Amino acid sequence: MRFSRVALAASLQLPAALARGDEQRPLGPSLGAGGPFAAGAGGKKPNIVFVLTDDQDLHMQSLDYLPLIKKHLIDQGTLYKRHYCTTAICCPARVSLWTGKLAHNTNVTDVNPPYGGYPKFVSQGLNSAYLPLWLQEAGYDTYYTGKLFNAHTVENYNAPFPAGWNGSDFLLDPYTYMYLNASFQRNREAPVSYEGQHSVDVLAQKALGFLDEAARGDRPFFLGIAPVAPHSNVQASLLTNHTFDNPDDINKIVGAFTPPIPAERHKHLFADARVPRTPNFNPEAATGANWVRRLRRQSAENVAFNDHFYRQRLRTLQSVDELVAAVVDRLAERGLLDSTYVFYTTDNGYHIGQHRLQPGKECGFEEDINVPLIVRGPGVPRGEVAEVVTAHVDLAPTILSLAGGKSRADFDGEPIPLSREELDRAATGRRHHEHVTVEFWGFAASEGKLFRDDEARLVLNNNYKALRVIGSEYNLYYAVWCNNEHELYDLKTDPYQLDNLLHSTATPPATLLGVPLAKVLARLDALLLVLKSCKGATCVRPWQALHPAGDVQNLRDALSARFDAFYEQQQPKVRFDRCELGYILDAEGPQFEADGLVYRHGLRWSEWV
């Protein structure tokens, strides 16, 4: 059926009560300047296919259940095992991915207005400054089908239309997550309901249609394919006709979440599968900080339901597995496979039971931020597992570089090493970052069942700023919450993040990395101070912002004793002034380059005030 105007007072909206530029800079690695498909290198530029799933995990072994993706992508390309999203929730992650900018620079920090969603994307001016437009400028035809952003609805799909697409067929809220009642909106047409058909199967046909259309053209193309699997199913009927104007009504939003629904042909698969029983799965002792530390251990009944939830995710992903195989086969039939890069990733990760958490995301644990990234294409090593640290903000620079486009000064990331030469160079620690910025605002939601009356579906003080630093000698996660609790994990010795070294009940080690723990902590805090408010090149080379002389390139360099006074006595500490549901600058505490808080080693404080 076609929709007429539907009365949706606030489609997937939070209650009202809870209520940068074109300057160019040089490309980093050689992809754009001297890669095989760089401008002027001769021959047609490469095609690019980008598959973006929704809430897919890496740490619960979802890739082990996708044999076609293994055959066509992992075995024929490179798996980047240290790839991270920077904000572990759908819309902010996707906006960062398509703009190359961290959420504190896009100011899209939630899935719905006032702090996020498609309306926020538009109001921030990003509909005229994101990847498809830059690719068109580089000579590409661009196509997209599936989920673009949250709060992109049957009401606002044309206010305005998303810019930059030669062809599009978008999933729309409030039906985006209804696997058997999806609504798509093609080009400038009205939305169409596909009631009774499985969403991913509908999407597969649309993707193949766009692929055929692109192949008939004489220009290189970009095709984005964004299935909602394995996201929870969301019953839109429970959300309509609600205004959600008080905090109690928020539960109606999350209460509409149920396990994902697989296609009929997959519904009996993996009957014995269960969430991997890693050491951090439903642990006997509480872990983490803030509200996570207060979670109670899950009952046997709770665990059994969560295992069912996990199986439904695996079953629903089988349609994605088939979709990827169909796309690769169609590329081969068209003679395009050898000249096409295929990217496969997800917006954010997922947890089920780790740290006693109910199904969901929005945390800074590895399960939520360390996500799959696979790339196959010309010059990409086959069967490789890369250790290089990469992030979602690196993807737009990477794709634009492959397209021979001009880089941008406001990119918060840099092109990902794809060739053998680039990966080898990155492995030596040269010309690629070792850190990831992690940030979050707003609430954390439990998407599964609640088994006790004292459990909350939503936790509102889930603001934190964090970083990951990974080098040959260290593997660290450091976070500061909006209530000013701190977390520090040494993942070299504690890979499941069970021992928060900074919790009030912890007995921290006297030394870390061969120096007193306090020295490491001071460096991490200063690095986080830079990253939580960085812009552009500073986000890629934060140590240079602290050490303009260039004598510090990484954490190990910064640990030199000659910098002790600089880090331990001169630097302000990361803190929040209060918790907020969105990015409110005066709640964020000290900013690296605001109000005189600019600290550079070798310069007197009086020079900066």
From TrEMBL:
<dbReference type="InterPro" id="IPR012083">
    <property type="entry name" value="Arylsulfatase"/>
</dbReference>
<dbReference type="GO" id="GO:0004065">
    <property type="term" value="F:arylsulfatase activity"/>
</dbReference>
<dbReference type="InterPro" id="IPR017850">
    <property type="entry name" value="Alkaline_phosphatase_core_sf"/>
</dbReference>
<dbReference type="Pfam" id="PF00884">
    <property type="entry name" value="Sulfatase"/>
</dbReference>
<protein>
    <recommendedName>
        <fullName>Arylsulfatase</fullName>
        <ecNumber>3.1.6.1</ecNumber>
    </recommendedName>
</protein>
<keyword id="KW-0732">Signal</keyword>
<dbReference type="InterPro" id="IPR024607">
    <property type="entry name" value="Sulfatase_CS"/>
</dbReference>
<dbReference type="GO" id="GO:0018958">
    <property type="term" value="P:phenol-containing compound metabolic process"/>
</dbReference>
<keyword id="KW-0325">Glycoprotein</keyword>
<comment type="similarity">
    <text>Belongs to the sulfatase family.</text>
</comment>
<dbReference type="GO" id="GO:0008449">
    <property type="term" value="F:N-acetylglucosamine-6-sulfatase activity"/>
</dbReference>
<dbReference type="GO" id="GO:0005539">
    <property type="term" value="F:glycosaminoglycan binding"/>
</dbReference>
<keyword id="KW-0378">Hydrolase</keyword>
<feature type="signal peptide">
    <location>
        <begin position="1"/>
        <end position="19"/>
    </location>
</feature>
<feature type="domain" description="Sulfatase N-terminal">
    <location>
        <begin position="46"/>
        <end position="404"/>
    </location>
</feature>
<dbReference type="InterPro" id="IPR000917">
    <property type="entry name" value="Sulfatase_N"/>
</dbReference>
<feature type="modified residue" description="3-oxoalanine (Cys)">
    <location>
        <position position="90"/>
    </location>
</feature>
